[in-house]
Each structure stands twice: as C-alpha cells, then as structure tokens.
Protein: Colanic acid biosynthesis glycosyltransferase WcaI
Amino acid sequence: MRILIHGINYAPELTGIGKYTGEMAIWLAAQGRDVHVLTALPYYPEWEIHSAYKNKSWFTETLNGVKVHRVPLYVPKEVTSLKRILHEFSFLAATIPFWIKAIFSKKYDVVFCIAPPFHLSLFPWLYKSTRGGVWINHIQDLQVDAAKDLGMIKNKTFLDIMFGLERFFLNRGLRVSTISEGMQHKILSKGIASTKIMFFPNWVDSNVIFPLPKEKSLRQEMGFNLADKIVLYSGNLGEKQGLDAILRAAAAFKADSSVKFVICGSGGGKDKLIRLAEESLLSNVFFFPLQPYEKLSALLAMADLHLVLQKSSAADLVMPSKLTGILAAGGCALVTATEGTTLYDVVYKFQMGILVQPENEEDLLRGIRLGLFGDTSAYRQNARNYAEQYLEKEQILRKFEADLNDLMVLPKA
Structure:
C-alpha cells in the first residue's frame, strides 16, 4: 500500500497534530507500507521555523522509514486571523509543484488529508479526480466552526463561503475520520452522510508515558521541592484555552508560598502571558519551554494538578490532545468542559478528573483547591485505567490499518 499523508504539521513538532501525524506515519512505515508525507518546514508551536530547518525550501528527507516532502511557508511572528489565512495559503501554494509531479508519477493508493486547514483538501480532490484511489479527510479540529465561535472571523458572507467549501470537500472524500464523538455529531450536522464517517481517535503509548513518583519527576531539575503544590499547564499557549485564567487563579494563591503555577509550552500567546504575570507581580508563576518527548513522563509526574482549559465557545470542537498524556501518566486533571459535551461526558462517566465550568473563575478556584488539598487518588487510578483500556496506540493504529485495508477493496466512485 502506497500512502500519502498531507498535512501542514509533522514531526519533529512536539505537540498537537504534528506529533500524532508523525507517530502514525512511522507506525505505518514499520508495518511495511510505502509512506510519504507532504508537509511544511516544522514551526509549531513556537511559530518560528525550527533552527535545523532554517534557510531550507523544497526538499525531501527520510525520517524513520518515512519519505517526508517539505515545502516552505510564511510563518508570522504575531498570529492574527488574516496572517493565519496567509500562512495557510502560502503552504497550499508551495505544494503545487509536488501535486503536478504526483499526477504523472507512481500512483498513491491512499491520500490521507489532515485538517486544519480544511482547504488542504483542494489538491487531494483534484488528484483523486485524475488518478482515483482512496481519499480520506481527517478532522483534528473543526477550524471554521472555531473561527466563528471564538469571534476570530465575523464576516457572515466569508464564513458562509468557507462552510460551503468545507462541506464540498468533505462530501467528495471516500471517508471523513475524526477524533471524538462530539466532532462526529458536528460533522453529521453539516450534511455529511453517517456512512462516510470513521472514528479515529488520538492515542497514547502507555509504555512510554506512565506514572512516576515525584522523586523521579522534573521537580528538582526545574528548581522545585517535593513539598511544593504544583499546578501544571503543559502544551500549546494559544487562544482556545483562555489561559489568562491561570494568572488570575495564581493571584488568588499569592499568600500560600507552597503553591506554584507552572506553564510549560510555546505558542502565540506565551509572550502576552509572561507580560501579564510580570505586570501582576506573580512570583508564584513559572514559565518553561516544551520538554522533549522522552522527558514527558517525568514532566507530568511533577504535577499535583494538571490544567486542561478551553473557552466555552470551543466546546466539542476540539478534544484536547494533552489529556491523553495526563491520563496515561495517572495524573489528576482539572478539565473545563460544559455539561453535554463529549469531553464532559467521558470525564464524568469514568471519574478521571475534576470538572469545572469554562470561564467560571470561582469554579476554577474550587477545582484547584480540591485538586491540591483533596484526595485525588481515585481520579489518578481511573485515569491510568482509561488510558490502558481505550487510548492504547497499538490498538488504535491496528484498527485504522484494518479500516484502510477494507477501503482499498470498495468502489472508489
């Protein structure tokens, strides 16, 4: 099976979509598949081209048995709605030479196109129209919905055009895969047939990420002691999470020198958070860069409480990828989720975290106090059990490979 994975993010990016795409491609290559990836120069979540890739343009490299075709793109220093659109279209334009060559080269049996951005489907649609084969649209994030609900794009005409194009591409693919039940329901509401939808959740390797005692965590390396009460937010520092709330919560604990708020990550909102923390004289807030994957268990083990934050307007549009690692590490997660969403329902059903209302600072403080000073042992055990039972990497990727094999024998019209 010759597979082309098309997405803007890929390894060696450490967080988000690039992490999962990289693990999927490497796994498929290890099964003997001929795997190609068409992607950008790595830039996320720092929004800066990684140092090893600076001054490069179009080139191909082989990473862990995967042929990775890189293209340049515009990466804004400050991310705005307009600049993000330019960023995405610059990537789309830069892939044109690859697609022209692909039409006249050996055929790809499967084209797996990852959104966001949704309009990457343009060239897979044209490729399928000329060469045939299996084309799957994989939805990691419903980008247009998020842009609308978060107020990033307010022009109704422009939104209607984008929703129309999104629906067009989703209907033309053989399948639409996505990562949560909530997103499946949202895709169904767009007029996509239920027979087209395929469940392909994000995963975690519980043999790589697992519970560790605090003594083996990164506490000492990062300058903390075992007696400290640590609230950890690790991951992308973007707009969907409403991370200003962390600083306001930290201000409420200024009098307790044992409570530390640790923010570990990168993203477009990091500089703003650092500035706000300095202006508020918050000596109990500490910033660190993203840690390498091999240190993830040790990083997660340092926390008494993990924050998984989203704004209420982002409900059920994304399933936070950071939660899978927290669960595998047997962490106690404080999750902001609205009742009735997939995220709320799964955390509540399996009792694997503390639920609070999004953008409700009083409820957030209640949850933090419970997580730091209450008994969280049941949450931690339930979290690890859930990861082992439902999120195992090998199990999920084996099922995905079987689905690909089934699709190969279906009519492709």
Observations:
- The chain has two domains: 2-203+392-408, 214-390.
- The chain is about 40% helix and 20% strand.
- The chain has a mean pLDDT of 93.
- The domain at 2-203+392-408 is CATH 3.40.50.2000 (Rossmann fold).
